[in-house]
Write a structure and sequence with these properties.
It is a single chain. With 270 residues, this protein is of the alpha+beta class. The protein is built from 10 helices and 6 strands. A hairpin with a 2-residue loop joins strand 5 and strand 6.
Length: 270
């Protein structure tokens, strides 16, 4: 309705150098994530000579390296950014990595040298194949026995292919993708092993159950182990023996027992 508003806004004066702008076409591009838009605006707002690094972007926005890389990849996928190998290494460049070309037109997927493109050098260390393979072996060791589960193994290598660029795998991204898949697999294993508690001793106690669950969670979720069911059953039995239920006092039975003892000793008067 004319003359009626549902908002108030308080803004700084547009002082020279203390504000940023972004085209509406980019701001409202539904293919871009919110972080990708902020990263793009931040880089474009810097001068050409300003030194940019992924570490600086992490510090600026308080996000993890994985999320910053994800934002950059989102821009690259939608034509706002193109990454090229920094072939100026041999010309005395102080770091090894890539440089980026950015375009407000989102046309970098279409044109080789589009108009309006701006080049920025962003530090992004190059990982050697040997270093990447070493990281792969470390990750496999962390996964433990879970990598031997057929379904998990299949999903792992599918995601690894998706997170790889030729012979190099982005293990930071792979770890983030695998984390919920691994958690789901662990929950399934835990639930299956916890079923041994269905067999309870007559003197079963809740404390034994609590202690056993804590032990099993540590084994499955923290140590990435998949213990044999026979071993888990033995451990459950041990916990029940170690933490038996307190005996309930039956007062009627207690009185009868004392009367019987008294009659046997001849020490009674009733």
């Amino acid at each position: 309705m004319k003359g009626i508003t549902n908002k108030e806004a308080y803004a700084y004066d547009n002082e020279n150098g203390n504000f940023s702008t972004i085209k509406n076409a980019i701001l409202y591009d539904k293919k871009l994530t919110a972080l990708a838009k902020i990263i793009f605006m931040s880089i474009m707002n810097d001068s050409i000579d300003y030194y940019i690094s992924q570490g600086l972007l992490i510090k600026r926005f308080g996000e993890s390296r994985y999320k910053i890389r994800k934002g950059l990849k989102n821009l690259e996928k939608n034509g706002y950014l193109k990454r090229k190998l920094n072939n100026r290494i041999e010309e005395g460049c102080k770091f090894k990595g890539h440089y980026y070309i950015l375009s407000e037109y989102g046309n970098l997927n279409k044109d080789v040298n589009p108009d309006g493109a701006v080049e920025f050098i962003i530090e992004e260390p190059i990982v050697t194949i040997e270093e990447n393979q070493q990281e792969f072996l470390i990750y496999l060791d962390e996964l433990g026995e879970y990598i031997e589960i057929e379904e998990f193994n299949r999903k792992f290598y599918e995601e690894m292919d998706r997170c790889s660029d030729g012979l190099i795998t982005d293990f930071e991204e792979l770890r983030e993708v695998i984390k919920p898949i691994l958690k789901k697999e662990k929950q399934k294993i835990y639930k299956e092993l916890l079923s041994v508690t269905e067999k309870k001793a007559p003197n079963y106690s809740q404390k034994a159950q609590t202690k056993f669950e804590k032990y099993l969670k540590k084994l499955v979720f923290d140590k990435n182990e998949i213990p044999e069911r026979k071993l888990v059953s033995s451990k459950w039995l041990a916990f029940q023996c170690e933490y038996p239920a307190k005996q309930k006092i039956d007062h009627e039975t207690m009185v009868q027992d004392r009367m019987s003892e008294a009659m046997a000793d001849g020490d009674y008067d009733f």
